[in-house]
Amino acid sequence: MNPHLEHLHPYPFEKLNQLKQGITAPADRDHIALSIGEPKHPTPHLIQEALLTHLHGLGNYPTTKGLPELRTNIADWIGKRFAIPGHLIDPETQVLPVNGTREALFSFAQAVIDPSDKALVVMPNPFYQIYEGAALLAGAKPYYLNTTAENDYLPNFDGVPEHVWQRCQLLYLCSPGNPTGAVIGRETHFKLLELAEKYDFLIASDECYTEIYLDENQPPQGLLQSAYQAGNKTFKRCVIFQSLSKRSNAPGLRSGFVAGDAEILAKYFQYRTYHGCAMPLPTQRASIAAWQDEIHVQTNRQQYREKFDAFIDILSPVCQIDRPAASFYIWLKTPIADTEFAQQLYAQQNVTVLPGSYLSRDSDDGNPGQNHVRIALVAPLDECIDAAQRIKNFLHTLN
Q1: Ranges for the Aminotransferase class I/classII large domain (predicted)?
Q2: Contact 281/51 with Cβ under 8 angstroms?
Q3: Which of 183, 233, 361, 396 has the maximum number of C-beta atoms within 10 A of its C-beta?
Q4: How much is the average pLDDT of 152-174?
Q5: Fold annotation for 3-42+296-398
Q6: 202, 201, 218: which is closest to 210 by C-alpha?
Q7: pTM attached to this predicted model
Q8: Domain-by-domain residue ranges, the chain?
Q9: Does domain 59-293 have CATH number 3.40.50.720?
C-alpha cells in the first residue's frame, strides 16, 4: 500500500458522526443539517433540460479536453466575470473541464509535486481537507498558515519564513475562504505572484465560492484577474479552480474547470489523459447552459443574502456574529469548546453544525478552529430561521 495513506486524517464528517454517536436528539423537532456545504436551492431547469436533452451522448466516449464549445464558453465567462480581455484566454490551451473542483484540487498536486525535493505545500488553516490529503499523497509536507480574527481570517503571508518559501512547490489559496468567507484582495495577490516568481512555486486558487457574495457591486477578486492587472498576461504560475456546485446549485453534476498557465495545464492535461476523468458529454452540455446564464446566479445570491439577514438578525442580540464578505458560511465563535457546543446543540435542539477544530490542525499558536463552529446556510430560508431560533435558545441555556 502507499505508505502516505497512513498520514491521512479522518474526514471531518467522520469525526462529526462519532461525536453524535449514542445521542438521541429531540423527537419533537425536525433535524436541521447545517454542517455540510451542499446547496439545497433547486438546480435551475435550464441545466436539467440540457442534461436530459443530451442523454444520447452517453453512447460516446468523451475526450479529456472536453468539447470546444464548453471550453469557449468557460473562457468567455472568465473574461466577462474577471474583466480580462477575451483574447488572453485561449480555450484550447488555458482551459480544462474537470469533474468538480474536489477531484481537480486533489489530482493537480499529484501532477505537479516533485516529492524528491522535500516539497512543502502551503495552505490556509482551517482548510478544505482535500488540500492536505493531496499534499500528503503526493509525497509533500503541508505547511499551515493560521487564519485568525487578528488577521481578518486571512493567512499572514508576511510571517512565512524564507526557508518555507524556498521549499514551497505549491500554494493553495481559498478565496472566498472555507470556512470563514474571507476574501483575498488584489494587493495580496500581487505579493504572492512576486513570491511565486522569486521562489519558483505554483499558485492553485480555489475560487468555487466567488459567485456568492454580499455586495452585488463588489464581486470577489480572482487570481487570474490580479495576474492580468499585474501585467502577467500569460497567467504564469497561476491556476484557478471553479465549479458549478455552489454557483449553480448543481453539486451532483460534478462539473467545474481549471484555467490559467498554458504550460502547466499542458502537463496537467497529460496527467489527466491517464487519470481517466473525462466529463460525460451530457454533463458538458448542461455545463454550457449553466456558464452561459447569469440570471439564476443572481437569484441564488439574493436567496443567500436573505438567509444571512434573517439568521444574523435573530442571533446578534445573544452572541458575536459576523457576516462574511462571501460564501454561504457563518464562522461562529462559541462560548464553550466547539466540539461540546456542536454535541449539545444536536442533543438539545436537533441542529447539526461542524466543529471548527475538525477543519484545522494544531500549531504552535494552538488550533485556529477551536471555539468556532461552521454553519452552512444551505437549507431553505424557513429552516435557517428555525435553526437560528434554536441556536439562540441553546445559547440562553449556556448563559
Answers
A1: 30-379
A2: no
A3: 183
A4: 97
A5: Aspartate Aminotransferase, domain 1 (3.90.1150)
A6: 218
A7: 0.96
A8: 3-42+296-398, 59-293
A9: no
